[in-house]
Specification:
This protein is α+β, with helices and mostly antiparallel strands and about 750 residues long. The protein has 3 domains: about 100 residues, Leucine-rich repeat, LRR (right-handed beta-alpha superhelix) (Alpha-Beta Horseshoe); about 80 residues; about 450 residues, YVTN repeat-like/Quinoprotein amine dehydrogenase (Methylamine Dehydrogenase, Chain H, 7 Propeller). The protein is about 15% helix and about 30% strand. The protein is built from 10 helices and 43 strands. The protein has a 7-stranded mixed beta sheet. Strands 8, 20, 21, 22, 23 and 27 form a 6-stranded mixed beta sheet that branches. Strands 9-11-43-42-41 form a 5-stranded antiparallel beta sheet, with no helix packed on it. It starts with 6 loop residues before the first helix and ends with a strand.
Length: about 750
C-alpha cells in the first residue's frame, strides 16, 4: 500500500533523532512504494542539512525538482523507474550517486551526471573520479572546439560586421537547430550524451554573442546549527649527474644520469601519445586495446610484481666516524659502530671565509631550541644486482609517507638505480623494495586515496608513484606489496613528479621530452582496476627539474624550475586550451652576471616556504634566493613580453660548487631550508628570526649564513674510508624527527633530530 510522506514519517525515518527537519542528516525512505507525487518539495526543502538520502526500491518515475537539500552528498535511487538524470543538477554538492536498476538510464546518463555534478566521485558503487574529470575537461574542450569550428565555418559569415540582436537570433536559430545533429564525437553508445552536451555548448555560444551572462556558481556551505527558516550560503612539483669535473670556465659540471641524456630518445615498444581524448596508455601487465565503449578512459589491469619484496630486508650498513684523527686510529682495528655526528652550529672555517655576513649582523633572537642531530643509519639499499660493493648507484629522490592517522610516519620512500625502497627511519629496515630490470628511477611522489572494498566500505591508502628512464609512471601500494598499474606517460625519461595538494588523483609529470603533463590516475577499486586519463599538456622550452603548484592558487598556477629558467603556467582546467605554453618567465639578479662563459639560467631547485615565499637557486649561483610569488607575478611587464623580475627578499649563502641539480627542500612547518652539496654537507637555514620580515615583504640586504652545517662523516665500509659524496637531495618529515640525505655513492644517510 502506497504511503504518503508526512513530517512525522520523515522525522521517524531520519537521523539523528529530532523534532525538527532541519536537524536531519540521514534519511532512509527505501522500500516504501513511493511515487513522484508522494515527495513534497515543501517538506523536503526544510531539511537544509540533509547529507544522505536513500530512495531505493520504490516506484519513482522521476525525481521532483526544487527539493532544496543544498548539502546533499549521497543519493541512492536505485531500483526505480527514473529515465532522466538532469534533475540532479539541483544537488551541486553530490559526491556519490547510486541509480542502478533504473531500466531507462544508459551510459549517456552516466556522462551527463559527471557534467552536472562537479563534486561527483562515485557512481553506482564505483569510483569515477578520473572518468568524471576527463568528461568535464578533456571531452568538454573537444566538443567546444568542434562546436566553435562548426559555427565559424557555416554561420559566422552570415552575420554583418555589426549585427543587431534580431539578426543574431535569426542566424543563431538556424545554428541551434542543426548543430546537435552535425557535430559528432565518440562512440554511438554516447550519441545521446554528445547531442545533449553539444546543445548546451551551443546555447552558451549564442548567449555570449548576445551579451548574456549565465551564472554557473555553486552554493557555498554554512552549517545551519539552529532552527532557522533558510540556509545561508557563505563563500566559504635533465637531472644529469656523474662524477665531479672541474673546468676552467664557470660552466656547470654536469653529472649525466646513465642512459638518460636530454637528447637521447628512450627506445620503448609503445605508440605515440594520442591527442585529446584518445591518449594511449601502455600497460605492461595487459595488452588490452581501447574499444569504442572505453573511449575517454581505460581500465588498467593490476600487476603484482615478483620484484616487490614484502619482508624486511637486511641492508648493508655503512659505519661512520665522527672525528677524523680519532677514527684513523680506530679504523685499523675494524668497523666502527654508529655514533653521534658532530653537528656544527656555525659554518666551517672555509665556509666562514666565504660568507658575506658581517659581524654587525643581528643575532638570532628566536627562543626556538637549536637543531641537534645524531646519526641513526647510513645504508646501502639500492645495490645493483645486490652487490654490496656498489658505491656508484646514484640516488635521486626521497619523500616521507603521509600520515593516515594522528601518529607521525617514520617511513621514507627512496629511489635510484632500478629500485624503489620504503625504509623505516627509526629501525633502518627496508620494509618494501620494488625492482624493475634496466630501469633507472629518478623521481617519486606520495598521495593518499580513498579506496572502497567490495562491500563498499571506504578506507584511506597511501599510493606511491615512481618514474624514470622508461617514461612510465608506476603506481605502487607499498602496504600490500603491489605495483598495481603502469601509465606510459612520456616518450622520454621522466625527470620530476608531484601530486596536486587539492586533488589527490592529479599527478604532474615532467619529462626530457620538454613537457609537463597533468594526469588523473583515478582510484583503484577492490581488485586494483583503475582508470587514468590525461587532462592537460604544458609545453616547456627545456627539461623541467622541479614542479610546484602555487599554494595560494594550487588549481590555477604551476611553477616549474627548468634547465633554461623558472616559469609559471596557468593550469585552470575550465579553460578551453588542452595544450599550453608558459604564462610568465621569472628573471633573477644572478642573470645579470652572465657572460659568454657562464650561464645561470639552469634553475635546478625550487620549493615553497609558505603560501607566498619561494625558495630557489640556479646552478653555480653559490647562494639561494627567497622571493615573493605574488609580488613577482605582479611585475609582469606585458602579456606579449611574458617576463617578470623576481622580487627577491633574501639571499642565503651556500656552496660555491660548479655542480648542478642539487635539490633543496623546505620543512612543512618551522621555516627551515635544507640543501646538500658536493662535499657531502647538509646546509640548514633556520629562518624563524626573520619570518616576520619575510612575510611582510621586507628585503634583507645581507647575505645570510647557514644556521648549521652537517659535515659528511666519511663512513668506513669494508675497512676502507669512503671519500666525499655528493648529496643529491635531502628531506625532513613533517614532524621534524628525521633528516634523510641521498648521495651519489648509493648511501642513504639518516639523522635523528633531537
Amino acid at each position: 500500500m502506497m504511503t504518503k510522506l508526512t513530517k512525522d514519517i520523515l522525522l521517524k525515518k531520519g537521523l539523528p533523532k529530532s523534532n525538527h527537519l532541519e536537524d536531519l542528516k540521514t534519511l532512509n525512505l527505501s522500500k516504501m512504494q513511493l511515487e513522484a507525487q508522494d515527495i513534497d518539495a515543501q517538506l523536503f526543502s526544510q531539511m537544509v542539512n540533509l547529507e544522505e538520502l536513500d530512495l531505493s526500491k520504490n516506484n519513482l518515475s522521476e525525481l521532483p525538482a526544487k527539493l532544496g537539500l543544498p548539502w546533499l552528498r549521497i543519493l541512492n535511487f536505485s531500483d526505480n523507474q527514473v529515465d532522466d538524470v538532469t534533475v540532479l543538477q539541483q544537488f551541486p554538492n553530490l559526491e556519490e550517486v547510486i541509480y542502478e536498476e533504473n531500466l531507462y538510464l544508459t551510459v549517456s546518463d552516466n556522462y551527463k551526471a559527471c557534467c552536472l555534478l562537479p563534486k561527483l566521485r562515485r557512481l553506482n558503487n564505483k569510483d569515477i573520479t578520473s572518468l568524471a574529470n576527463h568528461v568535464r575537461f578533456v571531452n568538454h574542450r573537444e566538443l567546444s572546439s568542434r562546436v566553435n569550428t562548426y559555427w565559424e565555418k557555416n554561420y559566422k559569415g552570415k552575420l554583418p560586421q555589426e549585427p543587431s540582436p534580431a539578426i543574431i537570433k535569426s542566424v543563431s536559430g538556424e545554428f541551434l537547430k542543426s548543430v546537435g545533429n552535425q557535430v559528432k564525437y565518440g562512440p554511438n553508445s554516447l550519441k545521446d550524451f554528445t547531442k545533449w552536451k553539444v546543445q548546451i555548448i551551443a546555447d552558451h555560444l549564442v548567449s555570449s554573442l548576445l551579451g548574456e551572462k549565465k551564472g554557473n556558481g555553486e552554493p557555498q556551505r554554512e552549517r545551519v546549527s539552529s532552527r532557522s527558516d533558510a540556509a545561508k550560503a557563505s563563500v566559504t612539483q635533465s637531472k644529469k649527474q656523474t662524477q665531479n669535473q672541474k673546468t676552467k670556465l664557470r660552466t656547470p659540471s654536469k653529472r649525466l644520469r646513465p642512459k638518460a641524456e636530454i637528447d637521447q630518445e628512450v627506445k620503448l615498444s609503445s605508440k605515440k601519445l594520442r591527442s585529446s581524448a584518445e591518449a594511449d596508455y601502455k600497460v605492461a601487465s595487459s595488452s588490452k586495446r581501447l574499444s569504442s565503449n572505453d573511449l575517454l578512459a581505460i581500465v588498467l589491469t593490476p600487476k603484482r610484481s615478483s620484484k616487490l619484496q614484502e619482508s624486511p630486508l637486511k641492508c648493508s650498513p655503512v659505519k661512520i666516524k665522527t672525528d677524523s684523527a680519532h677514527v684513523q686510529e680506530q679504523a685499523r682495528r675494524g668497523f666502527l659502530t654508529p655514533s653521534k655526528v658532530s653537528v656544527k652550529s656555525k659554518p666551517s672555517k672555509q665556509t666562514a671565509d666565504r660568507t658575506a655576513t658581517s659581524g654587525k649582523e643581528k643575532k638570532d633572537t628566536s627562543k626556538k631550541k637549536p637543531l641537534e642531530m645524531e646519526p641513526l643509519h647510513f645504508l646501502q639499499t639500492h645495490c645493483k644486482n645486490n652487490d654490496s660493493d656498489d658505491f656508484h648507484t646514484q640516488l635521486w629522490s626521497c619523500a616521507f609517507e603521509p600520515n593516515l592517522d594522528s601518529s607521525p610516519s617514520s617511513k621514507v620512500a627512496t629511489c635510484g638505480g632500478g629500485s624503489v625502497c620504503v625504509i623505516d627511519c627509526e629501525t633502518g629496515k627496508v620494509l618494501k623494495k620494488y625492482k624493475v630490470p634496466e630501469e633507472e628511477f629518478f623521481t617519486l611522489a606520495w598521495t593518499t586515496l580513498t579506496m572502497a572494498s567490495k562491500e563498499g566500505q571506504k578506507r584511506k591508502i597511501n599510493v606511491l608513484a615512481a618514474g624514470g628512464r622508461f617514461g612510465i609512471v608506476r603506481l605502487i601500494h607499498p602496504k600490500v606489496g603491489l605495483c598495481y598499474g603502469e601509465i606510459k606517460a612520456h616518450r622520454k625519461a621522466i625527470s620530476i613528479m608531484c601530486f596536486s595538494p587539492t586533488q589527490d588523483t592529479f599527478l604532474f609529470t615532467g619529462s626530457y621530452d620538454k613537457r609537463i603533463i597533468l594526469w588523473d590516475i583515478g582510484v583503484p577499486d577492490h581488485e586494483y582496476n583503475f582508470r587514468a586519463s590525461q587532462l592537460l599538456t604544458l609545453d616547456t622550452t627545456s627539461t623541467p627539474l622541479r614542479v610546484c603548484p602555487v599554494p595560494a592558487s594550487p588549481d590555477q598556477y604551476l611553477l616549474a624550475a627548468c634547465e633554461d629558467g623558472c616559469f609559471v603556467w596557468d593550469i585552470a582546467l575550465k579553460k578551453q586550451q588542452g595544450r599550453r605554453s608558459y604564462e610568465v618567465e621569472f628573471n633573477f639578479p644572478i642573470y645579470n652576471k652572465e657572460s659568454k662563459d657562464t650561464d645561470y639560467h639552469i634553475v635546478d631547485s625550487l620549493a615553497f616556504l609558505s603560501d607566498d615565499l619561494v625558495v630557489s637557486k640556479s646552478a653555480m649561483q653559490g647562494s639561494i634566493y627567497i622571493w615573493s610569488w605574488k609580488k613577482s607575478y605582479e611585475k609582469q611587464k606585458s602579456k606579449s613580453n611574458r617576463k617578470a623580475e623576481a622580487h627577491v627578499l633574501a639571499e642565503l649563502q651556500w656552496s660555491d660548487t660548479d655542480l648542478p641539480y642539487l635539490a633543496l627542500t623546505t620543512s612543512a612547518d618551522g621555516y627551515y631550508v635544507l640543501c646538500g652539496d658536493d662535499a657531502g654537507k647538509v646546509w640548514i637555514y633556520d629562518l624563524e628570526s626573520c619570518k616576520a620580515e619575510l612575510q611582510k615583504g621586507v628585503p634583507c640586504k645581507a647575505l645570510m649564513a647557514p644556521t648549521k652545517v652537517i659535515d659528511w662523516p666519511y663512513p668506513v665500509a669494508r675497512k676502507e674510508k669512503m671519500g666525499e659524496s655528493t648529496v643529491n637531495t635531502v628531506s625532513v618529515d613533517p614532524a621534524m624527527k628525521y633528516l634523510v640525505a641521498l648521495t651519489d655513492k648509493n648511501v642513504i644517510a639518516i639523522w635523528k633530530i633531537l
